[in-house]
Amino acid sequence: MKKTKVEFLKRFGKIRDLPSLPVIVTKVNAMLNDPNTTNDSLSRGIEKDQAIVFKMLQLVNSAFFGLREKISTTNEAAIILGFDAIRNIVLSLSTFNVLDHLLEKKSNIRFNVDRFWRHSIGVAVLSKYIAEQTGVGDPEKCFVCGLLHDMGKLMLAHYFPDDFIEVIEHASENGLMYLEAEKKVLPACHPEVGYFFVKKWDLPPHLANIIYSHHAVQPGAAFFDESIIVNTADGIINSYHADFLNNNKFPGNMNYAYFDTHARKRFNVWIETAAQWFPKVEPLIDDALAFFL
Ligand SMILES: [Fe+2]
Ligand SMILES: [Fe+2]
Description:
Radius of gyration: 19 Å
CATH superfamily of the domain at 5-20 and 108-292: Hypothetical protein af1432
Order of helices and strands: HHHHHHHHHHHHHHHH
Bound molecules: fe (ii) ion
CATH class of the domain at 5-20 and 108-292: Mainly Alpha
Distance between the termini: 40 Å
Shape: globular
Structural class: mainly alpha
């Protein structure tokens, strides 16, 4: 018999070997919630973790990040990009590492790690690009949420591979998209699973809201703009995906089934004209792939 949603999600709460996020994430979150934090104290806090500083400077100076000036210290990064951007960058880098390590441990499930990250990195870069070009939503929030939007899928595949395999088999037997099959087979879908872990790890509210609503955006909800941007980017990358994995070229056929109605309403022009502007984003995605993978 199909489990109830509560029973289903409870199993995730009982996982014993759940990795913890690095201390730096909790520390940066706490510092950003503290009104007494200054650029200096934030920089000093981050600098205790030299690996993250190195990665952060590499990321902010990378071509896909799109900064004109070169940043060489954490303090400069905090001044130029602001506190919140720093938090989102630290979150992106640390969570990516933790999840990527988790996947390395189990290679026997039918979950294509490379495909998963290529999709997520594509959505992250495209979400940030759309936010920057339209002035709608916060670009760094869009980036981290794009990167982690499907983490529920990853957790399901890692901890409950039988459920994951049932979904993909149901999808391929019935010619369904992954999400449609998930709705038929499981009591809760990957956005809810992702939300569960965001809460468990005590990550900031934008991640919780956007991950939860990335396939069904709630009008009036917090971070609505970022949610429809991530949904739009997800739909475009999903439409582009089959070819993206083979030769990185945009096929030009948009699959409208991927998009939420609010995203279609707001970003229809972007969706309709993607084949024309997407080539500008391709090199940025390539750079990000080279950086992360
Ligand atoms: Fe998703
Ligand atoms: Fe996705």
